[in-house]
């Protein structure tokens, strides 16, 4: 499957559109119907986090998504342009299993990461000088049709 790239302005209303597009591409990529709600919710959390971060730090910069499928995997990367070392906008690391068992404080960013990690099959978070990337993937049962 070719990579599908999507960028949108940092407005909450565009998160719904991103979720719908990702769900359609996931379906065409062979992701099982039973996983599509998980894909939709995880991508919605990642996009909402990026939109909120952009609105605080760089409202004119777009949020970017990359969707791809290879080796029977469907992968989504949500990227923002707020440096990861920014204390107000960056995300340090993905939560570990112990944090799920005992819960989170009231920090919405950590809670969003917990939701993403619980919904996606595989999650990687990279904080770079250019921004934060959340990469999520799910198994695809069939070869991609795009």
From TrEMBL:
Q: Which UniProt keywords are present, listed alphabetically?
A: ATP-binding, Kinase, Nucleotide-binding, Serine/threonine-protein kinase, Transferase
What name does the UniProt record give this protein?
A: ATP-binding protein
InterPro entries per UniProt: Anti-sigma-factor_SerPK, HATPase_C_sf, HATPase_dom
Which ranges of the sequence are coiled-coil?
none
Query: Which is an annotated GO molecular function term of this record?
Result: protein serine/threonine kinase activity
The family database entries (Pfam families) matched by this protein are listed as:
HATPase_c_2
- Residues annotated as domain Histidine kinase/HSP90-like ATPase: 8-138
């Amino acid at each position: 499957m070719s990579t599908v790239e999507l960028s949108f302005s940092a407005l909450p209303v565009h998160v719904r559109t991103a979720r719908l597009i990702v769900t359609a591409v996931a379906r065409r990529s062979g992701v099982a119907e039973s996983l599509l709600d998980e894909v939709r919710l995880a991508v919605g959390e990642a996009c909402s986090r990026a939109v909120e971060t952009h609105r605080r730090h760089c409202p004119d910069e777009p949020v970017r998504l990359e969707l791809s499928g290879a080796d029977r995997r469907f992968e989504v990367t949500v990227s923002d342009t707020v440096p990861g070392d920014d204390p107000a906008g960056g995300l340090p690391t993905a939560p570990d299993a112990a944090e799920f068992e005992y819960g989170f404080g009231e920090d919405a960013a950590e809670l969003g990461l917990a939701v993403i990690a619980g919904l996606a099959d595989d999650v990687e978070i990279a904080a770079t000088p250019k921004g934060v990337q959340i990469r999520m993937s799910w198994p695809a049962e069939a070869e991609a049709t795009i």
